[in-house]
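Sanity check

After download, print the first record. It should look like this:
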Amino acid sequence: MDFHKLPSPSAKRIALRISPPAERALRQGHPWVFDQSITEQSHKGAPGDLAVIFDDKRRFLAIGLYDPLSAIRVRILQSRDSATINADWFKNKLASAALVRASLAQTNTTGYRVVHGENDGLPGLIIDRYADTLVLKLYTPAWVPHLKEFCEALAQVSPSTHLILRLNRSLQKQTEYLYGLTDGMTLSPHTPPSLILFKENGLTFESDPIHGQKTGFFLDQRDNRARVEKLSKDKSVLNVFAYTGGFSVYAARGGAKQVVSVDISAPAIEAAIRNMAYNKLSPAIHETIADDAFEVLARMESQKRLFDLVIIDPPMFAQSEKQIEGALSAYRKLTRLGLSVLRQGGTLVQASCSSRVDADSFFESIHRSAREAGRRLTEIERTGHALDHPIGFKEGAYLKCLFASV
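Expected structure tokens:
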């Protein structure tokens, strides 16, 4: 990648004043300033300009990345003390993030989140590692002018053989601010292999960081997969929305006598079969179904098929406030269907990755469904994020998972 084609950040900083409620949120560590809360602005800016926010006594409050195209107008990099945002600043932030994850080295894990956006003080950007490949995903064009310095810092703190760039959907459309950057392009000199093998708790998985969902694997469920492994001995396990079979592989290593993986994507199911094979787990115990989860569950119910352990880990159902009700109703339906194929005394594992749906509403919807189905749930535990997905502010918490015996 020739970084010389990218613009340099403007030397002229934008000065901003914001409303009292926004100022309070900032002082409490919130990483975003929304467009409506800006009360004064020195001049118009371009994506990636540095915006400095002052309080009503003209004292420094914070500095962040300006994005005129987003309702999140400024993503805060540093508050309280002023700072020069450069390669050294990025290096310090990346080093702090690496420290949080240092203990993963002892778990034979080479696939994990290196930077979790806002929660690691680098808003609008995530980095996932798969063995010696790093995948950098951007959510705002504000990072483009800083990419050269950022990648220099990254190479020093977390060296990798390959660096792949991913852009979220809305950013892919903002071509005039991308200067030739494209989704899936390689920023490092060598072309990475299309499938990358990495380790998680000693198990081998493949990731397709260019074509796969997210950055190629759902790294946030690592701890929950390990919990499932402990519960699987001699059990029949149904993994719904299996994607590439993460939970299925753990269940098989945990000694499950039968594992059924269901996902609507045939390529994902093929990857699940390969993931079993990498770990020399018997294909005889693994049944795969490439079909719609709701239809498969309804069919299994009519066939009176029962399992000891049912895992329901659907994709995000609510992208916006308007979709919350629909999402909760889908979760309730999935709980009902899941319970209909769960043996008496079996275990239900149900997760949600929709940050818009708060944990209380999600857990309540599961309990409500169970009551309506006449099944008694005994909670084993409620879980959240693994240590490589730290939470630094309320909206940063999205993953919730319930383990319950029924």
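If your output differs, re-run the checksum step. Summary of this record's structure: The chain has ten helices and 19 strands.
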